[in-house]
Amino acid sequence: MPLETAFSMDTSSIKYGPGVTREVGWDMEEQGARRVMVVTDSHLSDKEPVAVTLEALGRHGIDAVLYDRASVEPTDVSFKEAIQFAADGNFDGFVAVGGGSSIDTAKAANLYSTHPADFMTYVNLPIGKGEPVPGALKPLVAVPTTAGTGSETTGVAIFDLLEIKAKTGIAHRNLRPVKGIVDPNNTKSLPKMIAACTGLDQLTHALEALTVLPYNQRPAPEHPKLRPAYQGANPISHIWASRAIEMISQHLVRAIEDPSNDEARGEVLLAATYAGIGFGNGGCHLPHGMSYPVSGMVRDYVPEGYPPEQPLIPHGMAVVLNAPAVFRFTAPANPEMHLYAAKLMGEDISDASPEDAGEVLAGNIVEMMRKVGMPNGLSAVGYGPDDVDKLVEGTLPQHRVTKLSPRPASAEDLKQLFMDSLTLW
Ligand SMILES: [Zn+2]
């Protein structure tokens, strides 16, 4: 089986700066859009980022229709509702204002209203049919209001498929927004726990992109159109992931402790975009693969700062809770890269040996988790040893990411990783 020899850098155009949301009217006009669906969620619909967006679109004579029913944790049902709205609305462009869930919802609405198909057609294998998107989509401009998903840079939309209670997604480069408007003014009022979870999500995105299976160890695609968005570690994703790890490690704690620190908050938001370019091209692996059942099987955990009516293990929390155990496990596959990641986090690795790599990196992640108030392992969000088999079962179908693990993980390995993640310190 021939191995991959090529890699590409795909990303949205990015505009960064305090107040740049005010330019989104021009950005859509430049794309030729005259009638735009503005996708957000109900918690954000009366807040400043949405108001500024609507005002900016109006100033350029663009007909903007607000859709504020994006779900905080999107499902196939919430996606289909947005798709129907998009299909009925006859839009020629999309603006998403919000966290990854709103941006992902806009991607799905754009995809299925532009290239109508049965819902499972484009959903990732093996859960869906995994067919490639047949052509270009309408322009989507993304305005992130949390610093974490990097969804403004990627061609990935994640959702819960309710009938099988599993997270899956749609991944194709044509889903990528044409532009990300990265405006630090939009993350000013983020509650502490949301800022911590989204910040640790981006840290883990970058750590995974750095350590993921290298692109040239993956089978070559039979046709260029089948080359996955998550290509494996490559020289381009390496650059973006490395810098993101440094920026987050230097600024995240300060940004969370003092949200009025514009510099730290701005750096964290910019780092989210860098991390997005890193994992959007390189890929994620086990921490993300294992996070999906952790979020999906939640019983009654409600983190502070999140809407109280719905039990929820936020995506970033579910990801980082597994990260220390995973990196201890994957380090033997590439100890130098794991030590390098620890160095980017600020660790002095001059005396560290390759055998220490996993422990050193895991230690740095745990230290950061404690500083920003993460719960102490899966046991602190409601899971016990009896849940581990189900968690493994929910991880196994996440091929898109688990197959990119730098060290193959069997069901037995995953079981041990979940056990090791029950308590972290
Ligand atoms: Zn993530």
Describe the 3D structure.
With 425 residues, this protein is α/β, with parallel strands linked by helices. 44% of the residues lie in helices and 10% in strands. The chain has a six-stranded parallel sheet, sandwiched between helices. A two-stranded antiparallel ribbon has the order 6-7. Strand 4 (93-98), helix 4 (100-114) and strand 5 form a beta-alpha-beta unit. Helix 3 (76-89) crosses helix 4 (100-114) and helix 5 packs parallel to helix 9 (315-330). The longest helix has 23 residues, at 235-257. The protein is globular, with a radius of gyration of 20 Å. The N and C termini lie far apart (43 Å). The mean pLDDT is 94. Zinc ion binds at residues 201, 205, 288, 315, 319.
Q: What are the secondary-structure elements, in order, as H or E?
A: EHEHEHEHEEEEHHHHHHHHHH
Count of strand segments: 8
Radius of gyration: 20 Å
Bound molecule types = zinc ion
How much of the polypeptide forms β-strand, as a percent range? 5-15%
- Overall average residue pLDDT: 94
Low-confidence runs of at least 5 consecutive residues: none
In what order do the strands lie side by side in the largest sheet?
Answer: 1-8-5-4-2-3
Which geometry do the CA atoms define?
globular
What structural category arises from helix and sheet content? Answer: alpha/beta
Helical fraction: 40-55%
N-C termini distance: 43 Å
State the major sheet: 6 strands, parallel
Tally of DSSP helical segments: 14
